[in-house]
């Protein structure tokens, strides 16, 4: 019998079932990860994969009876498992690799039902995987630990022996033996709580049996928490658990969750199947959040909102994450992907419907426009690489599974669903959802056969009616010619109304020229302005058009009022700035940034005006940050003045202004500014404020301060999951920072790799740190480093980074001179003030 191996060691094994085995043997091994040679740069094909076999179907679990007893002081746990199993066939395979354990029996098992009993012990590790410990400080300043879980994708096996594959579903009876003054939670509601016979300080908490479910969705938490609770309109008991003393900060998420559950119930026409749902903030947490059935775990920053100290973008983020994880309760938990190859069914769908849900709860967020800058363009960017991958990708070994939690599964998945939804309409889409969820409930689903050639819906609009498609076609062959009739010569013609279709558009110069007035006078709708600019930017990066063309288009955005349009433009200008930081005319591009952003900066000012809302707050933060970073004099002076008042306690900065002000003063500050920021960090009680500071530290320019920030990144002051954004911030902060961050990663590789045990945070760290290079030889250096320091879960990311470095280098070679000339010429032609 094969089980995915628990990291814990089985002490005693007993198989009760026909026939009783005279001898048992547990073979256990963690895989010896193979070193794969990175293939030559730029080629799309992945290195040949080692064959990986799924668990055999001859024995499968029906119910797990699982009892865990964590020790929060010596960081171990004891467990007892009884798995009622159905034996479908007899005979065994023997393979002890790939994180699997093989149980061998001296005599053949017969078909029927049996019980497998295993006692085991394990470590409450500090790797944010499996059953692990999470550090927190009590209100009185004492450091303590909670015991929490993160099983997706392949780490339930670290906590208990199990058939750790999403398609092998079973029910679970879970009990936890915990100190009596601790909160103990699991997927289901508590059905019994009694003193533990061997120790008067402990209690045994027993939870109701779960529905049939996959192992990666099992969860338990033992720690100290406060909570707020409500009952949703559809009768589900909803609680938000927060650190002790911070229950107030759970109210926003509670409201969102209570509104979201009935919304999904109505949309899917399928009720939420459990009696309760808990949402809990976990201090040390690798992902943003995790959808464990009935017990959703979150980073503190993805769940907690303080009315005074949380900024608008945090509120929006919490709403999106809550919407995302609650969608998984149906899409993922009730119906689960058959194998990780179909991960996009889970993540693509949740990443799409989280917007539908937030649009329902907060129409004023104009969240669908934000989808385009956050997901659609992100997906297009990654998908433009040779080293992209299909949405549905074959995966085997756990390290390959970790790799696909990326912008393709999430953002491209969501974009393709948005395109489909737009094409078939909400009514039929909703019907389809219900059919899918009803047909596959408590089971698994896979993507059906796609013919290899996609049909792509194409829309065309004109200035006659910018919000209406004049022509809709379904492109079902590689090439099509379309003639648009009755278009007057002074009209513009735009493809991809609403930037819904997942494709790029290239216009002739004449067509592009005619679209510019539509940008200036805003007659082109916001998502179309955004999409047009983004397409052009990507075409420039690919060398299809000149970057100067894009700069000219960017200048047409003088009257732009829309936050999301600015946000995307700002992001692209950021990419260009990073590229040009490799040249000696970096200052000129900063001048350009200042010119583009100052009119809107002046219109907005520093303080909110009556009647302004969420999007104005986001826009103000974005614009002031951009101007401050680029060294816009008036912005810099005001930021310094406000920062001083903030630090002296005279006038506390509003939450929405903190990031732009911190960034501005640090970038143009000295060692004293950095020290003040580090002090603010230490004093901050909210993780959101700590993160806000951590993310801007990399803006500091002086070499010894950069070093100080890097050392800080690995210190006890920074939570393990946040180290990535501090180092990433340094790499993205400046030319010197980029080099220093890369050296730091090489020098501290072992510690960093060990901290995340591979996993997706390593991929994120590598991506943030190296993809800004723009010299060919750096691609070689990165490749060579990872050949001698393998990171199996980041192989594809490393290939993507190397490809990006080569693309940057080519871009620079191709366009740097003409950009420089354009900027000089522009400067000369501007009126001097
Ligand atoms: N299922 C994931 C959590 C996860 C991510 C597990 C990566 C294992 C590896 C969860 O539903 C998720 O997608 N979380 C996102 C946040 C979401 C709002 C996009 C995350 O963690 O970034
Ligand atoms: Zn998800």
Automatic annotation (TrEMBL):
<keyword id="KW-0479">Metal-binding</keyword>
<dbReference type="GO" id="GO:0005615">
    <property type="term" value="C:extracellular space"/>
</dbReference>
<dbReference type="GO" id="GO:0008270">
    <property type="term" value="F:zinc ion binding"/>
</dbReference>
<feature type="binding site">
    <location>
        <position position="324"/>
    </location>
    <ligand>
        <name>Zn(2+)</name>
    </ligand>
</feature>
<dbReference type="InterPro" id="IPR024571">
    <property type="entry name" value="ERAP1-like_C_dom"/>
</dbReference>
<dbReference type="InterPro" id="IPR042097">
    <property type="entry name" value="Aminopeptidase_N-like_N_sf"/>
</dbReference>
<feature type="binding site">
    <location>
        <position position="328"/>
    </location>
    <ligand>
        <name>Zn(2+)</name>
    </ligand>
</feature>
<keyword id="KW-0378">Hydrolase</keyword>
<comment type="similarity">
    <text>Belongs to the peptidase M1 family.</text>
</comment>
<keyword id="KW-0963">Cytoplasm</keyword>
<dbReference type="Pfam" id="PF01433">
    <property type="entry name" value="Peptidase_M1"/>
</dbReference>
<dbReference type="InterPro" id="IPR001930">
    <property type="entry name" value="Peptidase_M1"/>
</dbReference>
<dbReference type="InterPro" id="IPR050344">
    <property type="entry name" value="Peptidase_M1_aminopeptidases"/>
</dbReference>
<dbReference type="InterPro" id="IPR045357">
    <property type="entry name" value="Aminopeptidase_N-like_N"/>
</dbReference>
<dbReference type="InterPro" id="IPR034016">
    <property type="entry name" value="M1_APN-typ"/>
</dbReference>
<dbReference type="GO" id="GO:0071456">
    <property type="term" value="P:cellular response to hypoxia"/>
</dbReference>
<keyword id="KW-0482">Metalloprotease</keyword>
<dbReference type="GO" id="GO:0070006">
    <property type="term" value="F:metalloaminopeptidase activity"/>
</dbReference>
<dbReference type="GO" id="GO:0016020">
    <property type="term" value="C:membrane"/>
</dbReference>
<dbReference type="Pfam" id="PF11838">
    <property type="entry name" value="ERAP1_C"/>
</dbReference>
<dbReference type="GO" id="GO:0042277">
    <property type="term" value="F:peptide binding"/>
</dbReference>
<dbReference type="InterPro" id="IPR027268">
    <property type="entry name" value="Peptidase_M4/M1_CTD_sf"/>
</dbReference>
<keyword id="KW-0031">Aminopeptidase</keyword>
<feature type="active site" description="Proton acceptor">
    <location>
        <position position="325"/>
    </location>
</feature>
<dbReference type="Pfam" id="PF17900">
    <property type="entry name" value="Peptidase_M1_N"/>
</dbReference>
<dbReference type="GO" id="GO:0006508">
    <property type="term" value="P:proteolysis"/>
</dbReference>
<feature type="domain" description="Peptidase M1 membrane alanine aminopeptidase">
    <location>
        <begin position="252"/>
        <end position="447"/>
    </location>
</feature>
<protein>
    <recommendedName>
        <fullName>Aminopeptidase</fullName>
        <ecNumber>3.4.11.-</ecNumber>
    </recommendedName>
</protein>
<feature type="site" description="Transition state stabilizer">
    <location>
        <position position="410"/>
    </location>
</feature>
<dbReference type="GO" id="GO:0043171">
    <property type="term" value="P:peptide catabolic process"/>
</dbReference>
<dbReference type="GO" id="GO:0016285">
    <property type="term" value="F:alanyl aminopeptidase activity"/>
</dbReference>
<feature type="domain" description="ERAP1-like C-terminal">
    <location>
        <begin position="492"/>
        <end position="805"/>
    </location>
</feature>
<keyword id="KW-0645">Protease</keyword>
<feature type="binding site">
    <location>
        <position position="347"/>
    </location>
    <ligand>
        <name>Zn(2+)</name>
    </ligand>
</feature>
<dbReference type="InterPro" id="IPR014782">
    <property type="entry name" value="Peptidase_M1_dom"/>
</dbReference>
<dbReference type="GO" id="GO:0005829">
    <property type="term" value="C:cytosol"/>
</dbReference>
<keyword id="KW-0862">Zinc</keyword>
<feature type="domain" description="Aminopeptidase N-like N-terminal">
    <location>
        <begin position="85"/>
        <end position="217"/>
    </location>
</feature>
